[in-house]
């Protein structure tokens, strides 16, 4: 490898930019690895590189003394005689090193594996070998390289400005899980979904009828399972083109009288694979009435079956927002077909392979419902695109194919067998392997090894493995895998030999499989016979004991396996049993039963206690994670004691407290650990003082009932989940507990308030509530903020309330800070440019959480007036800096970027000023003023000049729209052309890489042929060489004479 001069873009070397570790080592060389090289082969490859360097053989493996520089994230190998680390032999990025190898025979040698092209996962691996002067230095070098690699990986894994790509590559939809259907084939007819839905509804009607008749509550959660068709299970899955619902034309094979056959679950095993235990813990599967049909288990509609259906790059996931966990995960390889209902167009399902512990695998169809037909169409289109993309990615990967008869696989098994053996025993194993080769191969390897003159058994083993590896790599190139059809060759003899070798390899593999299966079968039969014989003897002994005691007792499996169960130890006669040794009375067995039951009860209690402690520890950890922010205006111990007394008051929800007292307590501070309880208390007191009219109150729909419904706002909510508090630990995990709780809360409110639904900004308000209380408490508090305090008016589709608020803020600036108002008006900066996010998110999207939490404290006491106070205080405290900004962009950038970065003292000062202000009268006057102005504008007739100007603007707008559409069409055409060019360029690049690989292999063959010719020339006698040269001269002279004769007329 040639030396390279490395400099940065400014011409300065980067040797001293970071702290570097330096190690003096010997670089023994490197070698590329075959893709089929395994771990047991690596020590022999390292030994080959080491042997070449020790024999002073020429080539890239020649040893040289180097300095190894570790400069994160780079590893640089520099010649020892060079004082400039910018002149190096090679350099790697430490995070691309995949494995270290430490030689056990000579501890001073070590090596590492790295991919030659890190960006290409299909590129070859390279092995670099080093030698340390001191064996004790090797662990230090390896540890240092690993530390550099970890630091580089940690640097790469830091969160970036844009959100995680995989999160936005995956599409998410809210679905309602309807049930699971067992089918006997991987394809389905077009009416499968409709038939399943009809049976589900019939089942629900039957269950309600039985509930009314019996007066009992159905308590099973298992969805209905159907067995459809008689077709045998196919061993292969459908291809991608079979996923189109319209392509599934196969008719359903019906049983008996042509009706669908219903069967019940014999156990909850199949359901437990879909739902976790926490969903089923309240289900009593044994409490079915005798009059119920015994072949049906109805599903419990009281449970929440809404799920998030996530379509990833290679799998689909079903996530439960209730349990905050993935309840179903299926890879695309397991899914055979997808279909949409013909009549029930808002339903869809997919058929996949269901792996069962006993018996053959079966196909299962999962049925789901969406909020609308449009969403189902989008789900089906997303699935089709995802399946097509995944299939293209899988086909583009060159997978390493191996079979039982591969030469490299045989070498791998040999290296596994001799790993860790002493050289003499390893030599015997290798000789046994060599005896299975052909005579010519054995002679060739023997002669080549003897020419090297090995000095020991270990060195001889290394040489033999070296030549075996070369032989196996050569044979692997022309190897035909088991089950493959050999390619047609030009000569029939070659094809015959390939067929015969492939046949022998296949026969050998089948023999090995038969031998292993026969051995295992015999072992299983013998073990079963022994176990049965032992059970018979135990039963006979126990029966004799019971007959002697004149009392028959039930035998417990625990009593039969006491020697294997350490928790139940048998009592000996010395421990209190009477009678002969080995003979036990019925009282003794009762004592054993009592002891076993007692120990089992203790174990169950301990396990429950451990679960309770673990749950409390997790809850404490989540609570600590939620409240991980710096508090503003920390309250004293006296204030904490005051809030403790108020929160422990028994009549706090029924007795009205003095407003001034509550306001004074809030102004002094609120303890962060009990802020959620304080907010609930303040909302209850506010409702006691201000009772909403009946027509303005929210619907009284329970939170859990809302979660069972599907929302049409799911897309907007799911998109905003990753944007809400992205840096907070509780909400940063994609579809983690925080984001799923936030989704539940936003979904429930969108269903409760159909007029508002979901609007951007509500997520930040709901997220801050979730940080301080549970989901249901946060939902009740969100209803209080929206309805009781009237914040929902600013989220209405017309946004009139937000326009009024912007006008009020502008008038406040005009009256209280005239210079700032004039400065903003001169640069045409209206409050909606910078203050709209403050009002829509209640400052939560831009300011620190501690500051926002204090604003919420005041909001529960003073109402929405606090938002104007805080906004006015923020602008007034930065008035001088804003007046110094002399441009539109600089002012807007200061308002959006600089103001939110408040110091702790500035936040406390802002909150203190806001508590002392009173602008309620001005806000009311400004609102009346806005409505009067709007009425005047609406009543005034538009002037004629304005109408003409409006017509001209409309015509110009229409022309611009037409031009825009033309440009859009041109842009789409250009994008299509770019895509085709990119595709052709990729094909050219792949063709070029293949040609380079072919040229490299041809050059290697040419070099080997030249070496063979030179060796043949050297072995021929000199007189023979002279005769050959004379013959070549004569032939060339005759050829030239013939050419000249042909040219003459």
Automatic annotation (TrEMBL):
Biased amino acid composition, Polar residues: 561-572
Span of domain Rab-GAP TBC: 669-863
Residue numbers spanned by region Disordered: 561-584
Pfam families: DUF3350, PID, RabGAP-TBC
Coiled coil: 950-1019
UniProt domain PID: residue ranges: 23-155, 316-387
An annotated Gene Ontology molecular function: GTPase activator activity
Name under which the protein is recorded: TBC1 domain family member 4
Organism per entry: Sinocyclocheilus anshuiensis
